[in-house]
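Good day; I would like, with your permission, to put a structural problem before you. What I wish to show you is a protein chain and, alongside it, a tokenised description of its three-dimensional fold. Please examine both parts with care and let me know of anything in them that strikes you as inconsistent. Thank you for your consideration; the sequence and its tokens are set out here:

***
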Amino acid sequence: MAIALTTLLEEAERFLGAARIADYCPNGLQVEGRPQVRRIVSGVTASQALLDAAVEADADVVLVHHGYFWKGENPCVVGMKQRRLKTLLNNDISLLAYHLPLDVHPQVGNNVQLAAQLDITVEGPLDPENMKVVGLIGSLDEPMTARDFARRVQEVLGREPLLIEGSQMIRRVGWCTGGGQGYIDQAIAAGVDLYLTGEASEQTVHSARENDVSFIAAGHHATERYGVQALGDYLAKRFALEHLFIDCPNPV
């Protein structure tokens, strides 16, 4: 079955509420391809590897979390950007990208989806006083050591995380997928035993150690694989389309 690209886009916009969220890039249709859609390929980032795989899979739409046209980037269509856009345009493939709307969504968002993968019960926002902080806070069914939780993360995500181990058993967890290491202070203020994100900065380690809070950096890419899959599944089911998630591994 095929549907109009405009219909797919309208439903994605409605479902995610993307127009209400200020962001660092345009959300939604970033590159327009053929007018009819029957197959969606999703991935974390619209890299050349993903685009080449989408061409091989005969995709009509590439759906990603990390798209193009970020604030402050060079707007010139040269080099890597030219090659990527040329691949999409030459093959008449549309690019749909959702950044913050796909982090915060209560059903298919990266943060709630990661919680489901790691068996964390979501309790609410990491910082209720500042909704620009997109992280969440939750709890484990049973307390465990930081090392045991890190092993769970490794088993689920398929990569060894960076662990800074505190002295407390892990009961309350704060997390923000991707590059959310800057929210560790909000997590500490919220009284978590462990804060998890994708990346680490030099100062993140000191904050964790000096506040005796465990910290895990599990990979920007690895922590953000699940939201775009869930959104692709939702759209495919809604319109009886084909959906294929393609993981292009990234060590960061």
Summary: Residues 3-102 form a domain with the Udp-n-acetylmuramoylalanyl-d-glutamate--2,6- Diaminopimelate Ligase; Chain: A, domain 1 fold (CATH 3.40.1390.30). The chain has two domains: 3-102, 105-223. Residues 8 and 220 are 28 Å apart (CA to CA).
